């Protein structure tokens, strides 16, 4: 993940409509009539589950040294598709295809949060019910109804047509311990641990037998043959694979977005720069992050906001009628005593307690010949980006 900010020598302001035209004509001796579709009640049979890839993980709360226990760290929406076929007319008896779910007995789940392979980061899955309510999937003796659709078909299309039901879920990664108690190294969440299985169902029931948010009983018969009543059991990595796989949770620090760090380099005469490469006295400053997670190892990258330079270690001056010419700005990394480069090079920041810092020095440098020199305003700006590998 990255976070851009800016550095400057001085502050700056810096939806088809488908048009269907029906044309009919009456000819002598020919009668043209319209067919009327009939919607009939049916049952759902031959259910098959399809895991469409979930959408990308989105950070909700950065993991820093001060992230509260119980915070949602990362989250993504996932859809489960149930494909089914109609099983014939049921007369005046309406049926519904009900999506239900629960965690089975096994490893106890506190607040519907299951453990993962990373100690201290838990997993929760929530269903977006068809009544608009978000319901956590909990550890219950029987599955709980999460969504339902009527099972009906259009006789003009024929009984053999297929249909589908989409059940939407949200997967969340939850911080379950203080950040300081997380394991060292990479926090790669790729499976749900424990002996409790996530059981998902698409079950054909008589209309209104199931109430959203209430437990349902799965009938034990198989009439008609192939009626939708079988479970979809997931454990371990398959739970996360339902949405496309896991994620590495980055250890981060608190970053103040688009923070400007002004550095006043002073005023100098041309005599200070007798030859190309001459530099002025350098002004120390630092870029610092706070509340870093224990394992955070931030890196910083600098980019010249005036990208016309020929030397990747020299920051160009802003162009204006009164701008100086024949000069640039250099920054020195005091951790290695080398010039900062503006070509995508990244630099480690030094960890000090729960902070991370890079100490720097900046000054002017002469880049032009005697004929190219001009006094004037000498402002420059660099954008810096933090990365938390």
UniProtKB/TrEMBL annotation:
Pfam families: Fimbrial (PF00419). GO terms for biological process: cell adhesion involved in single-species biofilm formation. Residues 1-37 form the signal peptide. SUPFAM superfamilies: Bacterial adhesins. One of its GO terms (cellular component) is pilus. Residues 247-388 form the Fimbrial-type adhesion domain. Gene3D superfamilies: 2.60.40.3310, Fimbrial-type adhesion domain. Coiled coil: none annotated. It comes from the Bacteria. InterPro entries: Adhesion_dom_fimbrial, Adhesion_dom_fimbrial_sf, Adhesion_dom_sf, Bact_Fimbrial_Adh_Pro. It is found in: Fimbrium. Keywords: Fimbrium, Signal. Belongs to the fimbrial protein family. This is Fimbrial protein. It comes from Pseudomonas chlororaphis.
